[in-house]
Amino acid sequence: MPRVTPGIRPSRFPITQFSQLDTARSSRQPASSLNPEVRSLYRIFLRATSASVLHHSNATSCLRTRYRPVFEHYVGLYQSQATKADVIREWDERIDNTLSLLQNSAVSRGLPHKVTRSLSQLVHSRFMEQKHVLHPKYDPNRSATKPPSLSPATMLSDELHRMLEETTRLAEGTTGLVLGSTPAKF
Predict the structure, then answer these.
(1) According to the model, what pLDDT value does residue 146 have?
(2) Which of 54, 59, 115, 175 could form a disulfide with 120 if both were Cys (CB 3.0 to 4.6 A apart)?
(3) For the chain, what is the domain count?
(4) Contact 74/91 with Cβ under 8 angstroms?
(5) Is residue 163 part of a domain?
(6) Residue 186: DSSP 8-state
(7) Minimal CA–CA distance to 74: which of 42, 49, 44?
(8) Angle subtended by helix axes 111-134 and 152-175, to nearest 10
(9) 9 assigned to some structural domain
(10) DSSP, res 3
(11) Does the pLDDT of residue 58 top 80, yes or no?
(12) Is residue 65 assigned to a domain?
């Protein structure tokens, strides 16, 4: 019999029903093969990216989009038995350096903050650019089989994006950081 407290409506479910639901729900969930250390590091990284851009939702989602492929690669390295320990150690060091950059970005408004804001703006600008390119206005005169031609502005934008990504790779190599990559298609 459920205990009745004055002012609080009694529950319709006895405690035993909740425990049965919890065990049934936990048996249906697939066992995660991801190492808890990597999962914890990813969660810390997500919180650090949010704090580094002062919890602005657009900038946070852009940085998370930029760093997601990095962690997918990191998980692949971590789960692979063929990966040598020194490769994982190097990645751990680079991730730690990146977390330090994000922490400095959250605390000070100097160069680290400008770098993280610029990285998020790079992703956002690429997204906004493709938003208009992928859904052009309907042209009834265009043939259905003919692919749309690339405009000079689109070709220039792709070239500039390629150069920015190359510069980011060079900066990663010289500083020992992981700066992520902007996805080509959203």
Answers:
(1) 64
(2) 59
(3) 1
(4) yes
(5) yes
(6) -
(7) 42
(8) 150
(9) no
(10) P
(11) yes
(12) yes
Instruction: Give the residue numbers spanning the domain of 167.
Output: 36-136+151-175
Q: How many CB atoms lie within 10 A of CB 168?
A: 18
Task: Tell me 7's DSSP state.
Answer: T
CA pair distance 126, 161, nearest whole angstrom: 8
Query: Please, are residues 101 and 115 in contact by the beta-carbon 8 Å criterion?
Result: yes
Section 94-100 average pLDDT = 93
Where is average pLDDT lowest: 43-52, 87-96, 127-136, 146-155?
Answer: 127-136
89 pLDDT more than 70: yes
| Mean residue pLDDT across the chain | 79
Per-residue confidence (pLDDT) for residue 101, from 0 to 100: 93
DSSP secondary structure string for all residues of 17-73? HHHHHHHHHHHHSPPP-S-HHHHHHHHHHHHHHHHHTTT-HHHHHHHHHHHHHHHHH
Q: What radius of gyration do the chain's Cα atoms show?
A: 24
Non-local CB neighbours of 120 within 8 Å, separated by 6+ positions: 53, 58, 59, 60, 62, 63, 66
pLDDT of residue 186: 52
| DSSP state, residue 151 | P
Residue 141 belongs to a domain: no
